[in-house]
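Assess the record.
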Amino acid sequence: MPFHVIEDKQLFYQIQGHGLSLVLIHSSMQSHHQWQYQDSLAEECQLVLLDLPGHGQSEQLDGEISIKRLANIIAQLIQELDMNSFIPLGHSIGGAISLQLALDYSELLEGIILVGTGAKMGVFPAILEGIRSHYHEGIELTIGQLGFGSTADPELVEFVKQECFHCNPEVAYADFNACNNFDVRQLLDQIQIPTLVIVGDEDQLAPLKWFQFLADRISNTELVIIENAGHMVMLEQPEQFNNAIKSFLQKL
């Protein structure tokens, strides 16, 4: 399986399809398996799926984690894989990373796709404390109670929870802390590239007002609201989710 060494740590990635590179950046406590229903996107572009440091098959970084540091790592990976340009598709912390990429590496980007994220990623204190001190209870709150829409398949909820349980609690807390410290609200007007913003209409972790804020301040933005979906919209309503992305790519 392919690995690339960055900061002396192995970073897992895999590539599917051909064409414009779409880099899928998963959420906290997850891995590239979060995108299991997005394989059909490889018919439209080249999919680059990766595990963030400390997640899945990637090694954990040393030192403090920040959104900017993670964005730098992904940009380095893409450049060292000799990809001239790409579109980051980021969910939750992955969306924050995508925004940072748009601010710091706009010359490499054809556009950005933001899912379940915001320009300021304030984390509920109960979630932050739960992940730090009572990991399993924190996951039950974050995923079991708040992560999905009301019609979600219980087996799907259980799958995501199990993925979270496999994540090192130290890595999970570092993710949430990085999100809690992230704030680029005053910088959004610098982003000029085409932007797609996707939100589930029942998302309790990243509310609709966050997405409206993004759409109002990034000049070239399309906002798509997907019904009957919560925070894990790509798993809950994959057909609607994939169609929104394919439509965006075709416009590009």
